[in-house]
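User: Show me an example of a complex going from sequences to structure tokens.

Assistant: Sure. Here are the input components:
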Amino acid sequence: MSRINKIIKSLKAKNVSEYRIIETIEDDYQQFYDLQKLETVRRVSTTEEQVTIYVKTAEDGKTLMGEASFIVSHEESKANLEKLIDQAIYEASFIKNQEYSLVNGDKKKSMAYKPLAEDPFTILTKLAKIFFKESNEVARFNALELFFNDVTTHIVNSNGVDYKKRTYEINIEAIPSFYGEGIKTELYRMFEYNELNYDKAASDAKEAILDVYNRGKAVKLEGVNKANIILRDKDLFQLAFEVIDSLHYASVYNHSNLKKVGEALTSNKINIGLDANTKYDYFDNDGVRLSKCSVIEDGIVKSYYGNNRYACYIGEKPTGNLNKLTLSKGKKSVEAFKTKPYLEIYDMSGIQVDAYQNYLGGEVRLALYFDGKDIIPVSGFSFSANLQEAIDNMSLSKEVSNINNYSGAKFALIKDVAIN
Amino acid sequence: MNKFSPYLKQKKKLLKELVARLSEAYDFASVLATDVYSKNYMVDKKISSISPSSISEAGFVVRVYKDHKYYEYSFNEIKANSIDGIIFEIAKMVSENQGIEDLKATMITEEKLTKKFKRPTKGALYSDEEILAKLEEVVKIGASYDEAVINARASIEFAEFSKMYLSKDRDLEQFYTWINPRTFVLVGKDDNVKYAYDGFGTNDTDYAFSHLKESIKEVAKLALELCSATMPTPGKYTIITDPSITGLIAHEAFGHGTEMDQFVKDRAMGAEFVGKRVASKHVTMHDGAKACVSSASYFFDDEGTLAQDTVIIRKGILEKGICDAVSASILGVKPTGNGRRESYKHKAYTRMTNTFFDKKDKTLEEMIASVEYGYYIAITNNGMEDPKNWGIQCTALYGREIVNGKFSGKIVSPVVMSGYVIDLLESISMVAKDTFDIIGSGSCGKGYKEWVRVSDGGASIKAEVKIG
């Protein structure tokens, strides 16, 4: 009998009528290189279940609902499993939240990625070689960590949900490093792929080496107090994500949403949406079947988004937890943004976006500065802006980017930003 | 439970057998077994919950050394009949990674040691029902503080850590606990929606609950104040820090910068500055699981090295870095008890524990009075390291304007500080003598991953920094 079935049997024996089980099987392969030489190899092989029990109670004529979870990290005896269930029933009985319905299941479904032609360690070794091939006399990868994560997620609930998916992702943390005359410098890069593509990896590696070369040549930006800045895809993802963060059903339920449906988030006619990362990501951890969701249309809040529980609380349809952000593209090419002096931001310590404090900014580690005549790599400065004004005046490029969790304009121009 | 994991005790015999068999096949073999039982209780104006917190785990990680490389296998099931399978998987991994140029890593050496350690929770142990009732009381205080309060939240995380490290020469067990109480208040006033938060750590339940009540009042008061906050004008300012911001600066400036696994990868400028001045003479900085009792205070690390108190900077001179066991073996130095894993599923890296600046000789009042124009910067939001280039970015929730040695009543938010680490540390001209908390309610990543619980703090400092 499978572990899930054993758990269901114990739940039924304890008269638990509402439950959800998420089983996660991880099969991960990892290589760690220092100075382009292998230091450590790792494997992860685990199975665990997260079990959530729902208990309904009546109070003042109202039905209330509590829930409590526990994790099964190894095969438990029947007696131990029943103890864990008893404890969860006890905990849930003290939680008196608004009642909601668990997701109803469709037909039982299972999807898995098409088997790859090579085994994971062979793939990681090849990817490492691809990265190291881009090294040269002055630039190399001082650290390279490669992860092949094969994850099977199986979700079952008491309302007939029984979905399974097997996905993989390849993550590469790369530290391109530059050695020049009297200068040693580096950048941080994290590449996330949900499809194996050696050519894409080669192009990312090449770009990383070029970026760190530029950082090695970068000079301190002096005498610039205001500038037009060009943000690139990874920072645009973060910016758009933070801008719609307060439109989650949970925020609406807690009255912490900054805008309401129908209100203008910005005077800019942009669109922001959410989607599943791949076709294999067809359900979330509640069992909600995932599909595209439009959050902002022409700058107006079109809909909120979020998981099943908070959707039920506010009487909306659950969109599920969607991991990919989509942003509209613009009409102009990035080249049109570059006709006047600009700072194109390549690398930041971490873009700072706070919709509640209306702030956008951060420290820049690498940018290309066009002073009207030359393009110069620059470093060692910060920018800051009023977030609302920045979004209202932002121009998106017609060039698009498709990276792991983002699809949309590759560049955005924000004018007259304070530089420090 | 408040005692060492019965599950790990039950598995000890099998794990010892596994290590013995691996030690026959490999030059070095060890296993770390973990059982972290952690529950998070949360109450706000509308909902409450009890759930396992993200640090909950139970599993094992084997490490072996062969042909100048380390191999690790993480798993969470061991039975008498599964040992052969585990040994087979490790052998398969070793054979599948032959022929790749390696670092010629040297092998870890260990001294013989058998020991058990214990630091249980202090104070009364409460039932789930009692904990929720206490949190509800706290939330009521926050929610009724002002009519502008939209939501008030109080949570408390109880964590019990059981870890066992076994190798040919070591047999270590430790049990310790930690409690993380947190508060959050959201307010809406004059078309502004603002929030404030607080977090602290303790292993005393009574202190946790009594302090939560004070915390939520302070947080509500601050959230209301933030409704009138403006953005600071970008520029260079004199700042006085609260202990959390001192800690954030210590952490980002020379915590990450002296993690010696970065020395192995030629990723840290600190390697070239050992024995040299890197900060003003007022700065003495520590890191260590044994340096104080806070969220990262354990007895041995995830590689079986005993906890220490490392003085990283003494009176402005960079004395030494912190180091995990593998990096120490490669660099030919002794490990400092800083080998930590996000979980048994992750690699061990050199990681900070409790990082802080020592106190010195000024009162906070003297320090504020000495500022002609500047800000008192408070409450950590986030930070980012840059160990190779010594850049630094630290974000604080707010700053209070100081004009001619007095608070003007003006508040700015958020405050993003950045600059060159050495410039910042050398500009430190005063350090407070007040006792400070080393707060550990947050997590620290290495780059953008590998999250571990850390604490940091320090006496208030006066420094010059770029804001905005």
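The lines above are the inputs; the final block is the predicted structure for all two components together. Chain B touches chain A through 78 residues (CB under 8 Å).
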